[in-house]
């Protein structure tokens, strides 16, 4: 059986790995063993944090809505309850954007709910 030399594949694999960890600190950017674990952990963290981002954004939306609604003598929970009882289906992302950028539109909505 002929001998198979795998040098090119080995070098390509290492080059790809080192390209992926470019910009990391200390030995994780140029030592193969450290780079491999760093890339694996970075991938795991990025996967988890993409899900965490959704949680934190929803929390931020709630804070923005609450800040706006408190100025109109309502609480966040009462405001959401009024929306649901009046069958207004606007999600929190849109409400937060309105509270930040188009206050007059949300003012009219709050005044209609209060009646």
Fold and architecture overview:
By secondary structure, the chain is an all-alpha fold. The protein has a single domain, classed as Ribosomal protein L20, C-terminal domain (c-terminal domain of poly(a) binding protein, Orthogonal Bundle). Helices cover 74% and strands 0% of the residues. The protein contains five helices and no strands. The chain has helices at residues 7-20, 32-70, 76-85, 92-101, 103-114. Helix 2 crosses helix 4. It is rod-shaped and about 85 Å long.
Write the layout of secondary structure elements.
Blueprint: H1 7-20, H2 32-70, H3 76-85, H4 92-101, H5 103-114
Helix pairs in contact: 1-2, 2-4
Short note summarizing the structure:
The protein is an all-alpha fold and about 120 residues long.
Q: What would CATH call the class? A: Mainly Alpha
Which range does the strand content fall in? under 5%
Number of domains: 1
Assembly type: single chain
Distance between the termini: 88 Å
Which fold name fills CATH's third level, the topology?
Answer: c-terminal domain of poly(a) binding protein
Sheet/helix structural class? mainly alpha
CATH superfamily caption: Ribosomal protein L20, C-terminal domain
Dominant shape:
rod-shaped
Main sheet makeup: none
Q: What string gives the helices and strands in order?
A: HHHHH
In CATH, the architecture is Orthogonal Bundle
Can you give the mean pLDDT? 95
Residues in helix, %: over 70%
Return residue spans where pLDDT drops below 50 for at least 5 consecutive residues.
none
Number of strands: 0
Integer-rounded radius of gyration: 26 Å
Question: What is the overall number of helices?
Answer: 5
